[in-house]
Amino acid sequence: MTQADDVVTTSSAPSGTSHIRSFVHRRAHITPSQKEALDRLLPQWSVAYRCAPLDLDQAFGRSAPTVLEIGFGMGETTLKIAQARPDDNFLGVEVFNAGVGALLKRIDEAAQTNIRIIQHDAVEVARDMIAPDTLAGVHIYFPDPWPKKRHHKRRLVQPPFIELLASRIKPGGYIHCATDWENYAEQMLDVLSHVPLLTNTADDYAPRPDFRPQTKFETRGLRLGHGVWDLIFTRK
Ligand SMILES: C[S@@+](CC[C@H](N)C(=O)[O-])C[C@H]1O[C@@H](n2cnc3c(N)ncnc32)[C@H](O)[C@@H]1O
User: Fold this and answer.
1) Structural domains of the chain, count
2) Res 6: pLDDT
3) Which of 13, 30, 44, 138 is the most core-located residue (most Cβ within 10 A)?
4) What is the pLDDT of residues 47-94, one digit of tens each?
5) Domain range spanning residue 206?
6) Average pLDDT for 189-214
7) Is residue 196 part of a domain?
8) CATH assignment of the domain containing 68
9) Is residue 11 part of a domain?
10) Within a domain: residue 6?
């Protein structure tokens, strides 16, 4: 992705606060079939961002444990996990048009009913739409690493956001992060370890759980010779 030097802040925070965005808006290529899926399927499988708590039972048409996935990219991992865990709901949040189109297409082709999408900044979704103590889990897989030091402020895994997410998880629920950037893995371990509501399930990094398949970005990282680090913490 393009990593611009500009720092975009949002002024839409109801509390009057603003935050540095973890993404930059870009005009990325979208295929005709992703565009077609966006036009045809977005109303069926997506929930619009609103500054009000989302009724999860209503959004999914059933009451089930709900996992929030942040930055699902092209959604191939989201679909595989949703297929493997039919009794759970998956709320995927992504800002990238082509990715949202790609996941909509996968949902349609697989006739998968336990995924909903919100196309919006996940920081605002977690803050405004997810009530405290509601999520069964949070997945953050291979978030943009922002490798340059001056861009580290854009990384998603920072204390305020992880504290916010921890407050949205039910006691006993989990947060699972993975990265192929060693320096980001160290930051994740430091940030997650210092959130009072969270407990590490491992001494430091966790083994990759069977339910997480290899993601697209992980495959790219492995090709580049990177390692992979999983972190799984539970909510006290
Ligand atoms: C490096 S990709 C990883 C995609 C996927 N999880 C994988 O492992 O293949 C990170 C994704 O996070 C999305 N993203 C970054 N910041 C976000 C935010 N604040 N809210 C929603 N999505 C975000 C980006 O658009 C991008 O698609």
Assistant:
1) 1
2) 34
3) 138
4) 999 999 999 999 999 999 999 999 999 999 999 999 999 999 999 999
5) 32-235
6) 96
7) yes
8) 3.40.50.150
9) no
10) no
Whole-angstrom Cα distance, residue 220 to residue 61?
36
Q: Please state the rounded mean pLDDT for residues 182-196.
A: 98
Closest by CA position to 83, among listed 99, 56, 103, 101:
103
Helix (H, G, I), strand (E, B) or coil at 142: coil
Answer whether 121 contacts ligand 1 (Cβ < 6 A).
Answer: yes
The answer to whether residue 224 sits within a structural domain is: yes
Which has more pLDDT, 54 or 13?
54
Do strands 229-235 and 135-141 pair parallel, antiparallel, or not at all (unpaired)? unpaired
Tell me whether residue 128 is one of the annotated catalytic residues.
Answer: no
Residue 172: strand, helix, or coil: strand
Inter-residue contact 174 to 232 (CB < 8 Å): yes
Q: What does the angle CA 163 – CA 165 – CA 167 come to, to the nearest 5 degrees?
A: 70
Catalytic hit among 39, 55, 128, 144: 144
Q: Give dist(CA 204, CA 35) in Å, integer.
A: 42
For the chain, the residue count is: 236
